[in-house]
Amino acid sequence: MIGNWKRLLCCIFINLCCVSAVFGQIDPVKRDLVQIGYNAALEGHPPLSIYAFYYRNQPNFLQESNLTLRLAIAPTYVDGELGIAGVLDEHTDLGIGVAGGGFADTYDEIRQGKFLPKESFTGHGAEVSLSLYHLFNPGQLIPLNGLIRGIAHYSFYSADDNTAKDFQLVDDHGTFSVRTGVRWGGKEPTLFPSLAMELSAWYEGMFRSESDVYGYNDRKLEWSSHQFWAEALLAYTLPKLKHSFFVSVTAGTSIDADRFSCYRLGALLPLAAEFPLSLPGYFYQELSAKQFALFGGNYMFPVDPMNRWNINLMAATAYVDFLPGLEQPGHWHSGVGAGVLYTSESWRVMVGYSYGIDAIRTDGHGAHSIGILLQFDLGHAKEAFLKPAPPGEWRGIQRILGVLGS
Q1: What's the pTM?
Q2: 42-51, 140-149, 395-404 — which one is most confidently predicted on average?
Q3: Which of 182, 340, 356, 405 has the most crowded Cβ, counting Cβ within 10 A?
């Protein structure tokens, strides 16, 4: 039972450390959000696919200061950054980050569509980071930002209750990473943004304190790994129809990738990482790639006069060049889905169904899953709750309904 709770906590918070600043600059907007996402497979026995965290971004952290505080908080993990505007010049900012806690470095082995608990284990971690953000085109409508970030991370591992006794864990180790890139435009860290545009290109190098052979002496932790990737996306809402669409293309390659530094695709959890590699209907991180190209999109349209209830249609397809040892038949993998979305100023909640067309399962190809995505804006809810209301016995109910419908 203890092992099951450990696995649950791991799956909820494993990607919290990835929900960092997503602008290539210090986020200038005040945010106070609760984010929850969950995918449940209708066949097979995968690890739980779920995230839940509180996200706060506070410009002018100290009154009339040049400081911005960003926090992502879960019960077992905290990721924070203090942004300092105008450190080197008017358009160059500094970010000092600290993160740490439990389960963030847990590894789940998924091979040929099967989750293998005997080859999976728990990992914990802590890190510090230093970032420089630079705006190259001040005054332009679409910002062009650059980022360079250094990260010092330490990982330590322990066996789960189901980890095989003869499975040798990877040694605890430190990793120093360097990430750099440019981003033209950007996307807010919110669920289904109504307007966004981005072109970006990135490099990240990971340098570990040691290389290691682990498992059944059949897999290796590389001393260094390198990732190169790019993304293009567009989100837009038609002014009259109120129909919205989102399309994206993400592609990446790597040098000396291993199980901890490869690209992992699968599931529909759009806020589980800064660059979510979503494939509807698949297990979370089911596919392990040394290089890939992912094409995805969704189309959403209202079905009521208030534009609160919407139908959302989704599709994605990926070309995957698999990491050796984790291959699957065929290079193309696709998924589709549909959901019902309720939206207001305070709430965004979608319940949906997804089908992984090429996912391998015991009865052949094809996988079904259901899921829920939720975003609650505490800032808007607080404003609605504190709106002046005339005295009367129904005032409390009116305020509650105002929060739910605002």
Answers
A1: 0.90
A2: 140-149
A3: 356
